[in-house]
Amino acid sequence: MSAQPATDPATPPGTGATAPANPVDRVLGDLHARIAGEPPSGEVADYIPELSTADPATFGIALATVQGDVHEVGDTAVPFTIQSISKAVLYGMALEDRGPAAVAEVVGVEPSGEAFNSIRLHPERSTPLNPMVNAGAIATTGLVAGADPGDRLARILATFEPRWTSASTAPRARPVTATARSPTCCATSR
Fold first, then answer.
1. 125 and 75, same structural domain?
2. How far apart are CA 61 and CA 29, in angstroms?
3. Which residues are bridge partners to 178 per DSSP?
4. Would you say residue 160 lies in a domain?
5. Which of 10, 77, 79, 137 is exposed most, by the fewest CB atoms within 10 A?
6. What is the pTM of this model?
7. What is the tally of structural domains in the chain?
8. Could you tell me if 51 and 43 are in contact, meaning their C-beta atoms sit under 8 angstroms apart?
9. Is 97 part of a structural domain of the chain?
10. How do residues 78-118 score in pLDDT, each as one tens digit?
11. What region does 120 belong to: left with phi over 0, alpha with psi -120 to 50, or beta?
12. pLDDT tier at 47 (50, 70, 90 boundaries)?
């Protein structure tokens, strides 16, 4: 007698469907089904031209573990512009290159309560409040190691390059475009 695939008790009998054996995949699948079943709301942002091309019907979730396992469900292969997600990657690069103490001298980690495009600085130190507002992201980018600005830029672009979906999405003409399949960029379009 051969072993039958494990099924989830919530899977309707007779449907032929089997639930994922991995509990992370099962939770992501349930979450995706619940959210995808809701009607989209709001408007597609158009203040940046690339954002206006987003299809509001696409929705995917990707989760990467520190061990490198990637769990995904939905439209995770659909390219999307990462915009401010790049700030977290660049902050990580600066921390790796310079160390937490050196980075803390240039940019804080306090919540600002400000919009992403805030230019407000710490009142006593005259440094950006955190790396997730534009002023902090600019400061953080300057901490990424490189022999000169061109070398630094090449290193930053190389970090994102494997995730570009085609030459037409290179950042010279447009914001960096990546897929949710990429471990460094786990976001949704909805």
1. no
2. 9
3. 80
4. no
5. 10
6. 0.65
7. 2
8. no
9. yes
10. 888 888 889 999 999 999 999 999 999 999 998 878 787 87
11. beta
12. confident
